[in-house]
Amino acid sequence: MAKFPFRKKQSGANDRHLQEELVNKYFDELDLSSVQNEAGDDVEFNADGVYSRINAALDNAEKKKTGKSKTWMVAASLLAGLCISIMAAYHYRYALLDRLDPIASKQLVAANGQTINFTLADGSKIWLNAGSKLTYPETFRGEKREIKLEGEAFLDVAHDPAKAFIIHTGNVRTQVLGTSFNIKAYANESFIKVDVLSGKVGVVTPAGKAKSTTTFLTPAEEVVFDKNKLSVIKNAQVDVNALSSWKDGELVFKNAALPEVLNTINRHFNVTVKADVNLARCSITANFTNVSLENIMKIISKLVKGKAMQKGTVYQLKGRGC
Question: Where's the FecR protein domain (predicted)?
């Protein structure tokens, strides 16, 4: 949609309420069935006119401070006769509100060695793992609740059948109505993983040549999307409680690939642990909760039949492999 110049207003709570009422009242009462041009086609939406007229209506309402009924008369007289198609009416209702009174975007960052628990405006609860960033709106408007995640989070989404909850992780989109699940999407890892604890989740992934595929998950199921190959693997009977136990301060691995384990340890302890290429296919099953980094490195060294060389805060794993 094209950008239209108009004066941005500094709005308080009362102004925002008035703006939303003006726009919603207009679209609710518009007789869409009669909005056609002489040829019988839908008429193009004049966004310039809408923006300037609503701003003028707001200014006039502020100066006169009239009652609610007079405010609607001002809005009706300025907006009467505006032609719009049915589809445009549905779309522009929230576009107008976003133009008139944009909702602030916020960020929440969990540094290495840190986890954060947070509640969104709709009541959804989020646990953010170390080395992760969440971008979210101050409040949700319209028919969708959308956030952006870089890293790992466990979400307990408040149920709202009228407003889908969407998590954007790069070019992967995860959509739910109300459920609890774990999503892992770190930039330095080659995969994006979604595991469901309760409810139902739809994960939309790219499939090449501008196409996409949707994978539906129910409890104890997971999808692993390979960012390089654009391939999807769906697994069942997954212990979601174990893999999401990090939100309770635990450090548990079940048949996890060594590179993934080391990345988790790096973020958890804020260190750097590397491994020789021949160890990449090793997998680890262990509970390292409340175990020191030094002892963790000793245990992993035995599991990969090798040893860990330390230089300051950097460890290098060497071994024969698994």
Answer: 108-201
The whole-model pTM stands at: 0.74
What secondary structure, in 3-state letters, does the chain show? CCCCCCCCCCCCHHHHHHHHHHHHHHHHHCCHHHCCCCCCCCCCCCHHHHHHHHHHHHHHHHHHCCCHHHHHHHHHHHHCCCCCCHHHHHHHHHHHHHHHCCCCEEEEEECCCCCEEEECCCCCEEEECCCEEEEEECCCCCCEEEEEEEEEEEEECCCCCCCEEEEEECCEEEEECCCEEEEEECCCCCEEEEEEEECCEEEEEEEECCEEEEEEECCCCEEEEECCCCEEEEECCCCHHHHCHHHHCCCEEEEEEHHHHHHHHHHHHCCEEEECHHHCCCEEEEECCCCCHHHHHHHHHHHCCEEEEEECCEEEEEECCC
138-192 per-position pLDDT tens digit: 999 888 999 999 999 999 999 999 999 999 999 999 999 889 999 999 999 999 9
Q: What is the pLDDT of residues 282-312, one digit of tens each?
A: 999 999 999 999 999 999 999 999 899 998 8
**Per-domain residue ranges for the chain?**
13-100, 105-238, 251-319
In angstroms, rounded to a whole number, what is the distance separating the alpha carbons of residues 193 and 226? 9
Fold of 105-238: Jelly Rolls (2.60.120)
Phi (first) and psi of residue 313, to 5 degrees = -100, 15
Q: How many residues does the chain have?
A: 322
Fold of 251-319: Phage tail protein beta-alpha-beta fold (3.55.50)
